[in-house]
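Sanity check

After download, print the first record. It should look like this:
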Amino acid sequence: MGYSGFQVIKEGLFGQKGWKPVWRDPEPKAEYDAIIIGGGGHGLSTAFYLAKEHGMTNIAVLEKGYIGGGNIGRNTTIVRANYFLPGNSEFYSHSLKMWEGMEQDLNYNVMHSQRGLINLFHSDGQRDAFARRGNAMINQGDDAILLDREGVREYLPYLDFDNVRFPIYGGLYHPRGGSARHDAVAWGYARGADQRGVDIIQNCEVTGIDIEGGVVKGVQTTRGAIKAKKVGIVVAGRSGQVAAMAGMRLPIESHVLQAFVTEGLKPIIDHVVSFGMGHFYISQSDKGGLVFGGDIDFYTSYAARGNLPMKEHVMDAAMTLMPMIGKAKVLRSWGGIMDMTPDGSPIIDKTPTEGLFIDCGWCYGGFKAVPASGFSFAHLMATGNHFEAAAQFRLDRFRSGVGLMDEEGTGSQHNLH
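Expected structure tokens:
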């Protein structure tokens, strides 16, 4: 079903009885040309672009839970292209361009709002670093404006500019940055893939990967064995566990990242704001809730829940930056399982097993990467060649040490990224 304003009005007048299921609920077939393990944003977008760009329709997406139940529904919904290093910069620039055409491409409202992103800085050294980053963004073809203290005040007058520990010196403004509705992104890609013949199979956990003579033959699942010529692993924080089924040990650790949302409030925060000294970021949703988060929990875990000390740390940063929100009631929190690489940058590559591919290691960057990750991974699975914008996301860089992309300059330690 195509969506339109006319359709919305028609259904409103006739009792909303004409809507059809957004995607099918098929039984798994015995064999597919390609299987995508993981029905999150990256897996669904991979299937969509395999069908749309490469004409592959005999594809299955296997999700152990339900669509939208993993990290795609457990994030702070920020979309941006303010990366600095070659390899990352062109990839996220490409991803932002895809975000800007996504709703037309999917015929689905993902509520993409380019409200602007402001990264605050609090010292002369941080100003110099952000000036350099802004120039790199402009050279990449994206937008960046360096704001002084009064420039920030024009956009964000409600901040505590005179905080004794972290006075605000200025900010780097990325006007095309913003946010989107995370659930809608999953639903839009699922619908688009289904329309092109992709089987989306929920409640189907992969329990093994079949390999013969170094070549992938298919997977074992809770709903039986399924054969496939190509298999893509796109399971975020579970990447290490699924790769182990193929005898691989990935250079990743899985950490919990918490996020929070308050009760609905009147519009007060027009932009996405990032606190440079507290690793705190906040925006306001279309429903009025303040959506915010901070650091990962700094211990490895597969539990999609966080701990109280990190909650306190994030709330401290919120109050330091904008004391005005102190009386807002936090309605809920959630945890996503982050697959952290040593250099803070992702992996999109072939594996040593022929026909087996891996897309993982997104650290904090997973949501904003959804369209370009799926596009690049689909290109790799279909053609065997790396898409140019993702060409440096090689797995072997961790073996050789050549081509590491330490975006934050914090060293090769997983939990520092």
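If your output differs, re-run the checksum step. Summary of this record's structure: Residues 117-175 form a domain with the D-Amino Acid Oxidase; Chain A, domain 2 fold (CATH 3.30.9.10).
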